[in-house]
């Protein structure tokens, strides 16, 4: 995906474990394509996946870990296909996952 999603976490308890999630939510009925440096509509959208949640590969981890540097989702790629388990890829910070 371009650009890479990076977020900075602050205010977490350094000793608590957190799971970091990324969720894509379909907001319109278009498929989009990147043409000449901009996103343009490229047809009708497919039905959204049933579980569009991407769990950061370093999750769960301590708050100290998440706060030491920006959290990068560099390996997330936007695609029209799922990975077989339904995982495609809003960021939620919590001691227990809050959606």
Question: What does this molecule look like?
Answer:
InterPro entries: p53-like_TF_DNA-bd_sf, T-box_DNA-bd, T-box_sf, TF_T-box, TF_T-box_CS. One of its GO terms (molecular function) is RNA polymerase II cis-regulatory region sequence-specific DNA binding. By secondary structure, the chain is mainly beta. It has a single domain, classed as Sandwich (Immunoglobulin-like). It contains 1 helix and 8 strands, in the order E-E-E-E-E-E-E-H-E. A two-stranded antiparallel sheet has the order 1-8. Strands 2-7 form a two-stranded antiparallel sheet.
Short description:
It holds the Pfam family T-box. Its main location: nucleus. 5% of the residues lie in helices and 27% in strands.
Descriptors:
elongated; 8 strands; mainly beta; about 5% helix; about 100 residues; disordered C terminus; T-box_sf; two-stranded antiparallel sheet; Immunoglobulin-like
């Amino acid at each position: 995906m371009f650009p890479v999603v990076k977020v900075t976490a602050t205010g977490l308890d350094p000793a608590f474990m957190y799971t970091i999630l990324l969720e894509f939510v379909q907001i319109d009925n278009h498929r989009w394509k990147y043409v000449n440096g901009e996103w343009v509509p490229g047809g009708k959208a497919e039905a959204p996946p049933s579980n569009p949640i991407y769990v950061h590969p370093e999750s769960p981890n301590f708050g100290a870990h998440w706060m030491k540097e920006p959290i990068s989702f560099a390996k997330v790629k936007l695609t029209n296909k799922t990975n077989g388990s339904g995982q495609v890829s809003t960021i939620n910070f919590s001691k227990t996952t809050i959606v």
